[in-house]
């Protein structure tokens, strides 16, 4: 019984490689193993079957009559095992759900990679959309996305599961060269000193900032309106103007970090909460995994980096 067990698929695969290459060294190169491993496998086969399977007196190596008999069946066994492994792997992939996720840009660019790494082993396919929160909300309701990470909790919609992830304050970002001059300025002085670089009014984020400006009695003239945080930060770094953003948006534009300065937003405080939103009773396990992975990445990666840049943030930046 033990001798029969010794004639395993690995040995047969090696035997087939030797028969095809006509040499031990050629088989070793083809399989990416040492020539010693090839020799040991052939010796094991010959010990198991009790006879020579290779005629070593000839170059290239030739199969003995016993080797020819073994070869007729070995290839079929190896092929059958390869098909079996492929079928098992396909069954495993089929059992894992495909998940479609939408994330606002600032979250996708900073926390998204860690979430994707965490989820990639649990799903057969992961589709990730980044972009504006409004588009994600519509895609979730139209069943084009399974869950979204958004600053819009969609409170007016029913049968949704809302998980608050974290809260962050709005901040002012100014050119580094003008930090000392503008550090103690109020919002009116900032607006007089430099143009305001706006986030797009088409976005939920931009609309929140515009409402805050109106509530506090400020009407900056239109200058620049941009969709993405990294472009906004590059404009501030180039001293085109200043902006009102959040710590996560600043981190998305990390390429400009050395050329900008982040200051508390003067006047009344303004903050936003980022939510994960999904449909009731759907992709519950994946939604929980995404939620926990996002919180872990924020706590271990994003928050420490942000607090190094803005030590005054304190508890204003916090998990929910």
TrEMBL record:
Molecular function in Gene Ontology: DNA binding; DNA-binding transcription factor activity
Location of the HTH lysR-type domain: 7-64
Organism phylogeny: Bacteria, Pseudomonadati, Pseudomonadota, Betaproteobacteria, Burkholderiales
Keyword list, A-Z: DNA-binding, Transcription, Transcription regulation
Pfam families linked to this entry: HTH_1 (PF00126), LysR_substrate (PF03466)
Family (UniProt): Belongs to the LysR transcriptional regulatory family.
Species name: Pandoraea sputorum
InterPro entries documented for this protein: HTH-type_LysR_regulators, LysR_HTH_N, LysR_subst-bd, WH-like_DNA-bd_sf, WH_DNA-bd_sf
Keyword Zinc: no
Protein name per Swiss-Prot or TrEMBL: Cyn operon transcriptional activator
Gene Ontology CC: one annotated term: cytosol
Entry keyword annotation includes RNA-binding: no
């Amino acid at each position: 019984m033990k001798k029969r067990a010794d004639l395993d698929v690995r040995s047969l695969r090696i035997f087939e490689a030797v028969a095809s290459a006509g040499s031990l060294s050629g088989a070793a190169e083809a399989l990416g193993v040492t020539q010693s491993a090839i020799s040991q496998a052939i010796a094991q086969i010959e010990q198991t079957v009790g006879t020579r399977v290779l005629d070593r007196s000839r170059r290239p190596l030739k199969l003995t009559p016993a080797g020819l008999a073994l070869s007729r069946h070995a290839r079929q066994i190896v092929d059958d095992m390869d098909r079996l492994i492929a079928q098992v792997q396909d069954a495993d992939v089929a059992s894992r759900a495909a998940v479609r996720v939408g994330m606002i840009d600032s979250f996708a660019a900073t926390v998204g990679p860690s979430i994707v790494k965490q989820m990639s082993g649990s799903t057969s396919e992961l589709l990730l959309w980044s972009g504006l929160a409004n588009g994600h909300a519509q895609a979730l309701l139209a069943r084009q996305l399974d869950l979204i990470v958004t600053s819009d909790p969609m409170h007016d919609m029913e049968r949704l599961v809302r998980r608050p992830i974290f809260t962050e304050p709005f901040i002012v970002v100014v050119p580094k060269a003008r930090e000392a001059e503008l550090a103690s300025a109020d919002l009116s002085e900032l607006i007089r000193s430099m143009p305001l670089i706006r986030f797009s009014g088409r976005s939920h984020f931009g609309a929140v900032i515009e409402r805050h400006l109106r509530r506090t009695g400020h009407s900056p003239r239109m200058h620049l309106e941009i969709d993405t945080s990294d472009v906004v930060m590059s404009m501030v770094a180039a001293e085109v103007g200043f902006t009102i953003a959040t710590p996560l948006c600043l981190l998305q534009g990390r390429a400009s970090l050395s050329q900008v300065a982040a200051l508390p937003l003067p006047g009344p405080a303004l903050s936003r909460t980022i939510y994960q939103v999904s449909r009731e009773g759907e992709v519950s396990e994946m939604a929980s995994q995404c939620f926990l992975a996002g919180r872990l990445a924020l706590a271990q990666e994003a928050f420490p980096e942000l607090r190094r840049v803005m030590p005054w943030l304190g508890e204003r930046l916090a998990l929910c």
